[in-house]
Design a protein that fits this description.
Strand order of the largest sheet of chain A: 6-5-4-3-2-1-18
Shape of chain A: globular
Oligomer: homodimer
Number of helices of chain A: 11
Largest sheet of chain A: 7 strands, mixed
Radius of gyration of chain A: 22 Å
CATH superfamily of the largest domain in chain A: Ribonuclease Z/Hydroxyacylglutathione hydrolase-like
Mean pLDDT of chain A: 97
Chain lengths: ~300, ~300
């Protein structure tokens, strides 16, 4: 997996900071998560090919998470895209986009497929043979979902020395990869575990923004490899976090700890902070493995 | 008047080029004309104070002219604006903005006043004691208006030597400035033209984008001081201009010539051209005083 941060600041786009948008590259997918104003320019700046984006996940309908979407949809049209585009977003966004298309008399020349979200509990919204995406219901001022991206457990790997020693016909290799016990050439059953190795452990990534501190998400993101959790504020401004339903760095770290995440990425910073190190320092008092998102930064895991 | 070009390219925002937006400073107003995606960032880059913008004029509802508006409206709210904001735009934009506000549960804390345009003939849409704004109906794929900004003729200036020689009481100065003949201290009528000077000639600016070549606009913009006219293409790509209802540099220059404009500013370039000099050279074969708009460029007149 590779995560590219296109924007990780809250509220408004500025000269050197962008609102929320990120691209998760996972098993040949390029999933776009949120799409604040200016996202299409940041995609260009980070040399991400527009045509590789086939699925866009929108957490909620505050402008700093979705105002760049209609422009991106229009640009796809101008670039004569033909690939289907799937958008997973709270109910309502389809109506806005459709109205804007209608008023500009600019229908797309590709299939634009909305998957409108309104469930209050976690649901699986995407699945193929290698990846699943689940919503993570968050606690914000408007209906908001985070997204959990999970690789599926791959096939078992053949331990070729053991397979050859056991004298198993090549016709059974596929069954071995699927975990079955198979007969050798003399008809004796060979235990799968004796001739195969565990597949690479599947990785997972959870995107949680925007949200107040919410332990309700812990069962959903339990044991996640990488958790992106918003930290709009630090504790000295906690009085601002509560009414706006945002989190502090300490709260983000507490969620990372309680959910047994392996790594925590912080983001969605208020632009009131000149130095982001205060976020990292505060989170590290609770959870050891903390990194800071920043626009243009990439993470591989 | 001072014109600041925030963006003057067609179609999509890119790393170094912005869609249409410009600010006209005229008699202490800061009029924002069009508002493509990224306009709020360009306002910051050009150090234009958000609070000075009280009137926004939107030509049409193609994305490269209006997709930045909802973000700007939201940012004004986040910056706790209290000043009224007037938006002059084709019918429909109010519905889009209202829907987006509703879905994000983010009503403005200032008065947002829409003036919806649907007339097919030129109309006066703004007037105060010093400035008027009129629509310029354009010929584009959707309902589109350009805008003519006109200073009003100011008061006549007192020729103080002549006024004192004519022995006119100070109580009549106001009437003199208004153009009236007034009595001197002996009761003889003094002709206004003998003791006053013409006011500074009022300036005018016409913004015409997007549009096909249209001589219908000439009576409206006749004798304009500065004409901004789109030139999306040059003549060798004229076959692209006609079906998309855009203009070439030569066509823009022809309109400048026929309307007796003093100066022509070209803009709304297709991003297919690496060198903008071709636009200027082509226009100058028809009309002598041509300048090229570019993002961040300012013009004083």
């Amino acid at each position: 997996m590779k995560l590219t941060i296109l924007g990780c600041y809250s509220a408004t786009p500025r000269i050197n900071t962008n609102p929320t948008a990120q691209v998760l590259e996972i098993n040949n997918h390029m999933f776009l998560i949120d799409c604040g104003e200016g996202t299409q320019v940041e995609l260009r700046r980070n040399r991400i090919k527009f045509n590789r984006i086939k699925h866009i996940f929108i957490s909620h309908l505050h402008g700093d998470h979705c105002f760049g979407l209609v422009g991106l949809i229009s640009t796809f049209r101008l670039l004569t895209r033909t690939t289907d585009l799937h958008i997973y977003a709270p109910k309502g966004l389809k109506e806005v986009i459709t109205l804007q298309m209608k008023l500009s008399d600019s229908w797309t020349n590709y299939n634009l497929i909305f998957h409108e979200l309104s469930a209050k509990v976690s649901e699986k919204i995407y699945e193929d043979d290698k990846v699943e995406v689940h919503t993570i219901p968050l606690d914000h001022r408007v209906y908001t979902n985070g997204f959990l991206f999970k690789e599926k457990l791959g096939e078992r790997k053949l331990d070729m020395n053991a397979v050859l020693n056991a004298d198993i016909d090549v016709a059974y290799y596929r069954k071995l990869k699927q975990g079955a016990d198979v007969p050798d050439n003399s008809g004796h059953l060979v235990k799968n575990s004796e001739v195969t190795l565990d597949p690479k452990p599947p990785k997972s990534y959870a995107f949680c923004s925007d949200t107040a501190y919410s332990e309700a998400i812990i069962p959903i993101i339990k044991d996640v490899d990488v958790l992106y959790h918003e930290s709009t504020f630090v504790e000295k401004n906690a009085m601002l976090a509560a009414p706006t339903k945002h989190s502090t760095a300490k709260q983000a770290a507490t969620i990372a700890k309680l959910s047994n995440a392996k790594q925590l990425i912080l983001g969605h910073y208020s632009t009131r902070y000149d130095n982001l190190d205060v976020f990292k320092a505060e989170a590290e008092t609770i959870f050891p493995n903390v990194v800071l998102a920043n626009d243009g930064k990439t993470f591989e895991f």
